[in-house]
């Protein structure tokens, strides 16, 4: 780990002033559960850490006109135990509960979850986001068992955030602040698949802070289904978050978002459209699951994830609709 | 000479009782000090520089910038120019600095130029192994051609069990101080306090008498912590170079998983044949395995059912550019067990026969037919086999399929060389000293039980001191030899000391020394128990004398004395549920029936079996070292993708200790390794039973399960 400067500002303004123009100048420190391991492995070496856990604007979960506002520095545990979240957003709750280590839930934050870096083993070993070695594409030619099956472009890591798919399915927006002001981005647009190794996986600039997430409250039924090997702390192999706006007993409109299968959460638009007007049954859920992975292009080692992702969609839909398999 | 035999089972007071580990509270409260917890005044921290290449020649190495780094006290080159590196993680240089951070930063400044050579790191596919395999020659027994022709049923398959790592919670390392008076103080994390001193003496050229080794606890070894290791020797040299400042080195997690020890793999194409009635007649195997650059790892197959009449076996040791293997809790046995019990289960499926019946039917092919038959029946009973087992693939229609499977194992486990010293002080306090170590198995506790039993005292009356070369030599804790060794030596030393005490108190009790005995904290006259002295009062008769007597377990004599022996069988049955849509396997239950000798402490014995079962669950479902063909490195040298079970992943573990008068008469037999053998095979067989086909390679991760179900090659 390289030596760094540490700052713990009390206001957002101060915090923003402490950030720099480049990623190497400063990094936002929330729970540190991801950042510190990256620093210890010398994958990231920011010159300054700016702790954001003391900033009031980043705290708390409140009800506003636009929906439920979640401060970026809210911990996973606070999120999972919050009554507003529990009442309206089972999709988000399941994603939080999936992070099954108490230590992780106590330290990790919602903002940190959304901004965490990929777990790709080549990236973590210092080969970069689009890793190559002696001219070879490491993911394509190396071991790709945990990599992407969906998403065009050169990036094959999987977006690690479980909150991302849930928030996208729920139609959430994230707020981002910089010294120049604030902007609002749809959760779906917050995740970007990098086209080259210099860009990031999220729509943040080095001088910006994610301050809050706003999730609209609606009558939509929602759920997340995660496929994990272990019950102990482990990464999901595939997840699906869905939200269903019902018209009578049929689906009016749907949102189906897959996690851990592409460099960004994968919005299965086609499958969602197909579902409109249909009743959720085991058959329709299964068909929607298959449709969701239609464009999958598995790598050498991860064909198995295609079926998994389809099953995750099926089970999420059944859970949201309350249909027993 | 006293009669050393164990007291009759029915007469024992302390042995056979369920004592919790004496150091349990200390450990679970974090107060126990492991060597990696030690911090000495003026201590330096050492860090290794290792090779990122799996095969390379060092062209040049320049440590000048590292030497100038603030806080650096000593630097040593381990792999000078010209060294041929054979695996990623090979030690190239070592640096000692005031802080670990300074040492790490300095390590990053060591400039090494390599000529990178071609490497080979993945051995699962025999076609790709090519010139890296050294065939050991074919062994033929009987007439396999004829047997193949005559067999009613022949089953063929490919099976594989990968390299996994020891993954010790306390990584490998030591604190060492080599002072200018040529004395060495060594605090390792080791499975062999006594012998590591001799190794150091030889490798450092320091008189053994100048070396003192001390260790209170070990955070896991599993067979990987016998030697001082390269980092142990190099850190000693750093201490000397730094004028005798203590130096601490403990491998970081990534390095631990790469060079801290691995279990060899085992792969095979196997053909087995039988008559319609299930009599096994044929075994043919073409096996290969790697244990690193030296090849290594030859699983003894067919395993347990060794007497299959017609056999053809060939094995190749595959050299890979990976760090060398070390003994791993029952070396070669999990591999052999899996490579035997899985094909036999496949054979049973083809025969449409209950696999437990198949094993019972063929028990005559084992060295312990009665034991295995009894155990198979017991395990079947405890796992509700007759209710829950179904023919392969007959697990119903839903996405969750349940299945049961069986595995059988064997092990030795006779006691090692061990000397104990028992000291009885005039104030009645008792010390037992051995240069042994407690790997977390409860060695301290059982030593106290044996001494207390032998001296007629309670466990809390005995002070056990181990982990120090100032105590009498005791063997390496490997091969499940510790419990037999230390219990026998403690027994003998206790009785030798007692004999001396009897002489001192004979007069006071008005009876000859050979008529005295001990019970319930008293020394008393055998035929006249009313005549007695409380232990403390008896010891006071020593005046200013202290009794200090040794006793030794000598393996060649142990069988005759009847204190310890070796040779056990074991059977495990796994009960799993497989989600065939996701490939996720969940453990419902693992039943372990363990053949054993005299059980000193049923609680610690059970703990051993629990631990062994958990390791088997990890090995069957999760653990695997994953190497990268392109970079030659280990991809999962962390606790994130090197997956281990958590408490919720384990299911129910049912342990049946075969505590019987008959087994008891065999004396003490080691238990560390035998229960770690059958689980992997049992779990794989249970999955096959559940989903209707074999997942050919473990660990049965969702990937491998779904690939097998889809007919895809993993
Ligand atoms: C073994 C393991 C299993 C896990 N399993 C899961 C899982 O199943 N699902 C899942 O979603 N997560 C999982 N996690 C990840 C965990 O949830 C994240 O590490 C955690 O949420 C990150 O939060 P943090 O506050 O600690 O982030 P930090 O480590 O503090 O930060 C992470 C990154 O985000 C940036 N950042 C943080 N906050 C902000 C902000 N407000 N504005 C701008 N940038 C910011 C930091 O600069 C840094 O780059 C797992 C982690 C581990 C180690």
Concise summary:
The complex is a heterodimer of chains A (325) and B (714). Chain A has 325 residues and is α+β, with helices and mostly antiparallel strands.
According to CATH, the fold-level topology of one domain in chain A is Uridine Diphospho-n-acetylenolpyruvylglucosamine Reductase, domain 3
CATH structural fold name of the largest domain in chain B:
Aldehyde Oxidoreductase, domain 4
Number of domains of chain B: 3
Please tally the helical runs of chain A, counting DSSP H or I stretches of 4 or more residues: 14
Q: What's the β-strand tally of chain A?
A: 14
Runs of chain A in which pLDDT lies below 50 for 5 or more consecutive residues are: none
Structural class of chain B: alpha+beta
Shape of chain B: flat
- Classified by CATH, the class of the largest domain in chain B is Alpha Beta
Reading off the top of the CATH hierarchy, the class of one domain in chain A is best stated as Alpha Beta
Arithmetic mean of pLDDT of chain B: 97
Strand order of the largest sheet of chain B: 3-5-1-13-10-11-12
CA(first)-CA(last) distance of chain A: 49 Å
Sheet with the most strands, sense and barrel status of chain B? 7 strands, mixed
- Radius of gyration of CA atoms of chain A, rounded to a whole number: 19 Å
Tally of separate helices of chain B:
20
The CATH architecture of the largest domain in chain B can be given as 2-Layer Sandwich
Residue share in β-strands of chain B: 25-35%
């Amino acid at each position: 780990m390289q030596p760094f400067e540490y700052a713990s500002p009390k206001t957002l303004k101060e915090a923003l002033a402490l950030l720099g123009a480049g990623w190497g100048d400063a990094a936002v420190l929330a729970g540190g559960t991801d950042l510190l391991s990256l620093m210890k492995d010398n994958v990231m070496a920011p010159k300054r850490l700016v702790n954001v856990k003391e900033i009031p604007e980043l705290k708390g979960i409140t009800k506003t006109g636009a929906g439920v506002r979640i401060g970026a520095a809210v911990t996973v545990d606070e999120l999972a135990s919050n009554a507003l979240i529990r009442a309206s957003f089972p999709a988000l709750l399941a994603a939080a509960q999936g992070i099954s280590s108490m230590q992780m839930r106590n330290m990790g934050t919602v903002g940190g979850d959304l901004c965490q870096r990929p777990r790709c083993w080549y990236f973590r070993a210092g080969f970069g986001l689009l890793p190559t070695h002696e001219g070879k594409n490491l993911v394509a030619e190396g071991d790709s068992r945990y990599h992407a099956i969906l998403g065009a472009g050169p990036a094959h890591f999987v977006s690690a955030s479980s909150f991302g798919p849930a928030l996208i399915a729920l139609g959430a927006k994230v707020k981002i602040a910089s010294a120049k002001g604030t902007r609002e981005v749809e959760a779906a647009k917050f995740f970007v698949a990098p086209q080259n190794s210099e860009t990031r996986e999220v729509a943040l600039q080095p001088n910006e802070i994610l301050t809050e997430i706003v999730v609209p409250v609606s009558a939509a039924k929602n759920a997340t289904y995660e496929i994990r090997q272990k019950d102990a702390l482990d990464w999901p192999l595939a997840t699906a978050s869905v939200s269903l706006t019902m018209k009578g007993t049929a689906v009016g409109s749907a949102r189906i978002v897959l996690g851990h299968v592409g460099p960004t959460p994968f919005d299965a638009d086609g499958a969602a459209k197909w579902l409109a007007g249909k009743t959720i049954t085991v058959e329709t859920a299964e068909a929607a699951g298959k449709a969701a992975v239609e464009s999958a292009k598995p790598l050498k080692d991860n064909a198995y994830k295609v079926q998994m992702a389809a099953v995750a969609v099926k089970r999420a839909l059944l859970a949201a609709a309350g249909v027993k398999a | 000479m006293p009669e050393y035999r164990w007291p009759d089972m029915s007469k024992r007071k302390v042995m056979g009782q369920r004592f919790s580990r004496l150091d349990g509270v200390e450990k679970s409260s974090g107060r126990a000090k492991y060597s990696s917890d030690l911090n000495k005044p003026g201590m330096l921290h050492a860090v290794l520089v290792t090779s990122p290449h799996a095969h390379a020649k060092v062209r040049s190495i320049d440590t000048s910038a590292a030497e100038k780094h603030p806080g650096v006290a000593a630097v040593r080159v381990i792999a000078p120019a010209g060294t041929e590196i054979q695996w990623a993680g090979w030690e190239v240089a070592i640096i000692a600095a005031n802080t670990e951070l300074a040492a790490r930063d300095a390590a990053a400044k060591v400039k090494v130029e390599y000529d990178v050579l071609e490497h080979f790191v993945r051995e699962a596919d025999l076609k790709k192994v090519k010139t890296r395999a050294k065939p050991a020659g074919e062994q033929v027994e009987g007439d396999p051609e004829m047997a193949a022709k005559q067999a009613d049923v022949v089953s063929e398959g490919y099976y594989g069990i990968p390299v996994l790592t020891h993954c010790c919670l306390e990584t490998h390392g030591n604190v060492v101080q080599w002072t200018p008076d040529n004395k060495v103080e060594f605090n390792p994390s080791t499975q062999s306090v006594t012998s590591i001193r001799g190794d150091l003496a030889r490798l450092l050229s320091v008189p053994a008498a100048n070396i003192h080794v001390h260790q209170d606890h070990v955070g896991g070894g599993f067979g990987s912590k016998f030697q001082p290791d390269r980092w142990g020797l190099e850190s000693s040299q750093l201490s000397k170079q730094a004028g005798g400042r203590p130096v601490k080195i403990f491998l970081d997690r990534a390095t631990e998983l790469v060079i801290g020890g691995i279990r060899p793999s085992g792969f095979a194409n196997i053909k087995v044949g039988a008559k319609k009635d299930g009599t096994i007649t044929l075994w043919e195997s073409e096996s290969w395995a790697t244990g690193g650059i030296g090849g290594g790892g030859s699983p003894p197959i067919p395993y347990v059912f060794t007497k299959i009449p017609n056999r053809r076996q060939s094995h190749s040791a595959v050299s890979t550019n990976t760090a060398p293997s070390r003994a791993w809790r029952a070396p070669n046995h999990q591999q052999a067990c899996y490579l035997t019990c899985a094909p036999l289960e496949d054979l049973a499926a083809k025969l449409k026969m209950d696999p437990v019946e198949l094993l019972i039917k063929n028990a005559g092919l084992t060295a312990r037919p009665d034991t295995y038959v009894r155990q198979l029946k017991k395990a079947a009973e405890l796992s509700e086999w007759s209710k829950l087992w179904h023919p392969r693939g007959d697990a119903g229609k839903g996405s969750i399929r349940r299945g049961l499977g069986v595995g059988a194992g064997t092990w030795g486990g006779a006691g090692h060389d061990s000397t104990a010293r028992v000291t009885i002080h005039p104030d009645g306090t008792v010390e037992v000293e051995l240069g042994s170590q407690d790997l977390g198995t409860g060695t301290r506790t059982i030593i106290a039980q044996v001494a207390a039993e032998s001296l007629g005292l309670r466990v809390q009356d005995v002070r056990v001191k181990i982990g120090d070369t100032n105590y009498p030599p005791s063997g390496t804790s490997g091969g499940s030899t510790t419990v037999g060794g230390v219990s026998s030596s403690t027994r003998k030393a206790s009785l030798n000391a007692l004999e001396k005490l009897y002489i001192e108190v004979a007069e006071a009790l008005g009876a000859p020394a050979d008529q005295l005995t001990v019970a319930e904290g008293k020394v008393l006259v055998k035929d006249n128990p009313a005549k007695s002295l409380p232990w403390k009062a008896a010891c006071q008769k020593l005046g200013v004398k202290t009794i200090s007597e040794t006793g030794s377990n000598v393996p060649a004599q142990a069988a005759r004395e009847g204190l310890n022996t070796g040779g056990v069988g074991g059977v495990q049955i796994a009960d799993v549920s497989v989600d065939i849509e996701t490939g996720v396997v969940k453990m419902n239950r693992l039943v372990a029936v363990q053949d054993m000798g005299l059980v000193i402490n049923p609680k610690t014995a059970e703990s051993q079996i629990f631990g062994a079962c958990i390791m088997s669950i990890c090995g069957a479902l999760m653990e695997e070292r994953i190497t990268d063909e392109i970079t030659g490195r280990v991809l999962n040298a962390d606790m994130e993708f090197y997956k281990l079970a958590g408490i919720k992943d384990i299911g129910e573990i049912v342990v049946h200790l075969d505590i019987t008068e008959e087994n008891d008469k065999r004396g003490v037999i080691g238990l560390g390794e035998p229960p770690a053998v059958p689980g992997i095979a049992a779990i794989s067989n249970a999955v096959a039973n559940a989903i209707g086909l074999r997942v050919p390679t473990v660990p049965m991760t969702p990937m491998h399960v779904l690939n097998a179900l889809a007919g895809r090659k993993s």
